[in-house]
Task: structure prediction
Amino acid sequence: MNNIMKTTAVMLCAMAFGVPAANAQWSVGVQAGATYNTLHSDNSYAYDRHYSPGLALTVGIPVRYDFRDWFGVQAEAMMIYRGYSIQRSWIYWPVDYNYQNLFLDVPVFARFSFGGRRLRGYVLAGAYVGAWLHSQVYGHQDRYFDTAEINIEGGYDFDETVPFDSRRDNRFDAGLAGGIGISYAFNNKFSIFAEARYYYGLTDMQKNYMKNRMPRYNNTLAVQVGGWFTFPK
Result:
């Protein structure tokens, strides 16, 4: 039954784009790269708190179905770290917190490509859903109650896992995504690519657990490289 449904879906999509299903192709790949994440939030009254972007990594396994040489659909399972930092100023300096949040996301793209037989450019447009899996924080904290004044010398470094709170943390992740890239085909089976993507978060990292809370959204730029294996027709 599953094979019948899969074949029917492929045939309907192929018919919709005016191309026989026999001319379409499957490809599977691997990819890895670096991320530059910005946490968007309002400081409100916390005038001494400053957010900074964070660098991290991403890896994924994409799958592509090309209806024509210029159009296809692409989906993938990807592990992506989204980092950011919080620095404190004024009397709280040099307190800082560096977060690395791990997400499992599944983006789905429409893929438009152009160029020659070997060297081609492409554009990706789509959306993603996923889950927030893990949170780690490291940095420096002062011992505020050691003396009557803040004791910088009495501070300490830390590196620890942040436990999730089901009342506060929203572990569902979703947003819009797009990208541009270039690929080079060695032959009909193997090709490599380099691309840049942008993930625009639409889900707050917090639930509506308190009044006057400050929403927090992740916007992530990813630069990555990878390779494709295309199955014979």
